[in-house]
Design brief:
About 10% of the residues lie in helices and about 40% in strands. It has about 300 residues and is mainly β.
């Protein structure tokens, strides 16, 4: 990884214990509850039900899928459990009507004319049955972040789609929200299907968001990147803060085919800061993903 910025010394983020009753909408929460699926929610909620019944000091026996994001601190899991999503049941009623028919034949005989006549009449009866079923419905996705004194990035895990991020494509590139993400359900995906015009590097495909910040305060910007392969022509992802380049990462800086961690530090110069990812990829049929973007103040 090639940072093009100065890390400001003397501004360290002090470690502080997380209250067992606090709710922090962070990567640990997204890792423990990565989807709105009721089936997945049930197993995660079962863990929380036993985990929060008494004070927890052990640092083992945590769900393996959340260990990378949550670590071994019990307070991180307590926080995620305290703000887990809720589900409600919606009753749906269906009605079914069946109709049966029966035929009754009557015969009349006239002795004087010895003529026999018969007539057939059809009787119809209807029966109705009503069944009621209960199906769980996931609560709507709630955007997290957007707090200048906490996580300033909204929807950094792309679990609620794209907004408020803004994506810009150029010729022979495309973007989408795809699954799986980085220990989560979704991630942002950039695809390059054919070579791009060299002049396009002046205005490459990009992804950006304006985040609220506190003027004069330093921030840690973290995000995870995925490159499908490492080659000499893969190119890189560049990061700009308020239009100024501060960081680049390419496929060979980490392990290709998996998500890798990235850290950028910057000083906020106003109450709003633009964070922009630019995709300068030279490889044809390249796949690059961004996920779990967050920005926290260092104070």
């Amino acid at each position: 990884m090639t940072p093009s910025f100065v890390i400001w010394a003397g501004c360290l983020l002090g470690a502080s214990a997380v209250s067992a009753t606090s709710c922090n909408a962070d990567n640990c929460l997204r890792a423990l509850f990565p989807t709105q699926s009721p089936a997945v929610y049930s197993s995660d909620a079962a863990f929380c039900a036993t985990f929060t019944t008494s004070p927890r000091t052990a640092t083992t026996d945590f769900p393996s899928k959340a260990s990378a994001a949550c670590g071994t601190a019990p307070a991180r899991y307590s926080s995620a459990c305290s703000c887990r999503p809720t589900f409600r049941s919606t009753l749906s009623t269906t009605s079914q009507t069946t109709t049966t028919s029966s035929s009754v034949t009557s015969t009349t005989t006239s002795s004087s004319s010895s003529v026999t006549t018969s007539s057939t009449s059809t009787l119809s009866t209807s029966t109705s049955s009503t069944s009621t079923t209960s199906s769980p419905t996931a609560t709507p996705c709630v955007l997290t972040g957007g707090n200048p004194n906490g996580d300033a990035v909204k929807n950094g895990g792309f679990e609620c789609g794209l907004a408020p991020w803004i994506a810009t494509d150029i010729a022979n590139t495309a973007h989408s929200i795809t699954s799986p993400g980085d220990a989560s359900t979704y991630a942002y995906e950039f695809d390059q299907t054919r070579p791009i015009n060299p002049t396009a590097k002046q205005n490459p495909a990009s992804l950006n968001q304006n985040i609220p910040t506190v003027n004069g305060i330093p921030y840690n910007l973290r995000f995870r990147t995925y490159f499908d392969k490492c080659t000499g022509n893969e190119g890189f992802v560049g990061v700009k803060v308020n239009g100024q380049p501060v960081y680049t990462v390419d496929a060979c800086d980490g392990t290709a085919g998996v998500f890798n961690d990235n850290l950028v530090q910057f000083f906020a110069s106003s109450d709003s800061t633009n964070v922009r990812f630019e995709f300068l990829v030279g490889e044809n049929n390249a796949v690059v993903k961004i996920d779990n973007v967050n920005a926290y103040p260092l104070h």
